[in-house]
Amino acid sequence: MRTAKKLGITVLVILLVLAVAGYFLTRGDTASIPIDEVTGTDPRLDEPDAEMFPTVRIAEPVGWAADEAPEPAPGLTVSRFAEGLEHPRTIHTLPNGDVLVSLTRAPKGDGDGGGIRAWIAGLLMGKAGATGPSPDQVVLLRDRDGDGRADVKQVIVDDLASPSGLAWNDGTLYIANHDAVLAYPYELGAARVGGPPRKITDLAGGGNHWMRNLELSPDGSALYVAVGSASNIAENGLEAEEGRALIWEIDLATGRRRQLAGGLRNPNGLDFSPWSGELWTTVNERDMLGSDLVPDYLTNVPLGAQYGWPWVYWGDTYDRRVEYDIPDYINYVRRPEYALGPHVAALGFVFTREGARMGERFANGAFVARHGSWNRKPPSGYDVVYVPFDERGNPVGQPVPVLSGFLTGEGTTRGRPTWVDWARDGALLVSDDTAGVIWRAIDADAAPTGAIERVRSRSLPPQRELRGQQAVFGEDDYAREVTAPQP
Fold first, then answer.
1. Among 267, 284, 430, 471, which residue is least crowded by beta carbons within 10 Å?
2. CATH annotation of 70-442
3. What digits encode the pLDDT tens for the residues 381-409?
4. Are 202 and 248 a contacting pair, CB within 8 Å?
5. Which burial class, exposed, middle or buried, applies to 244 when counting CB atoms under 10 A from its CB (0-12, 13-18, 19+)?
6. What phi and psi values does residue 367 have, to the nearest 5 degrees?
7. Residue 420 in contact with residue 91, Cβ under 8 Å?
8. CA angle, corner 119, sides to 116 and 121, nearest 5?
9. Which residues are within 8 A (CB) of 245 and not within 5 positions of it... i.e. 6 or more apart?
């Protein structure tokens, strides 16, 4: 074959690929339901409209100008706690006030196994600012003079593998790589970890959702690990989902682990409810059912809970695209507690804590970073919202904007809020991965929030003895008073 002919064929193939990519970038379903109807405790669920190709609407990151910042809710001020970071995602505040940040991206080679579909997916994620080599570092930020801006930035551990989850207790720093949880010796204030790690447990590695997030139980005895699915609806087979779409509970004394909850397509943020002591999580739901489905959510995860993925969403709605036999446990699927909106990509969240300084309006609820959609028209998320809770620890009402202005209104975004945690002085810290910034929001005039009162209910008194046939029942009971025969 002549060189000119080969060149012509190559050009035609490239043009075809670009045409297919352009098709992906310009088509899709436009939302028809107002956003406030698809959020809250009782969201409206549209009729599903399965898509052969996903709706695509990429908001390309353009960064923040030096004098720009997110728009805070009334009464709050926002500033840069740190900047110039390479793709900061999870953040964790230590007891001494130092702030740890994971600098991370997806593991190398992670994706759908190659081919044109993977190439197009990589193109889309690249446009969203999500691709590139992972820095694989955990960085310490320290505000030595208390002015609300970090003046120390140092790497305390590297040589990691797409790290995300961070937790610390009693001289041990726990880090979740995409494929394992590691424990490093680390003393507060130190410039580096104190030695090599020990492995706590292996994890299912990589996959479509590669972040592995951590939360320690309040007493430090158990470690919880959120692991997302490797696919949208298990289209690569159920075997590929072993050890995924769940939350592990690890007993740190014995090393044993058990599944705390399952059927969670992509669980992310983890925190314990101050009202009940129960673990809660944010979850990213499935795609390719249109711009109005399915809502991401915030929910509790009691032991043994099952949320239905991939067969079921929002409690009792079957996804007819899933071709695998329905297991018996689907009869016991739980309904999520609170819808955060379709495709908002809810990631980090924290409950209001004692000492928080966000004002009375934000003194009884949860703060959620909504990273932002890539597959909804119009875009959703790209903000930090507050979910109000009532005095008994139940979410109520609609999400309240805390930080907005990430979207420019011109089809681009200045940044993407990713994770949240409390600074020691009561400010809310927010990581912005594509902009490389940690934002700090606070109501400088607010007094520190008091502790949320734990809700305690009365339980039935224990039966202290067995009375056998001498037991007395009410007159409407099936059993009646019986006098035991005398010997």
1. 471
2. 2.120.10.30
3. 999 999 999 999 999 999 999 999 999 99
4. no
5. buried
6. -105, 130
7. yes
8. 110
9. 227, 228, 229, 262, 263, 264, 265, 266, 267, 309, 310
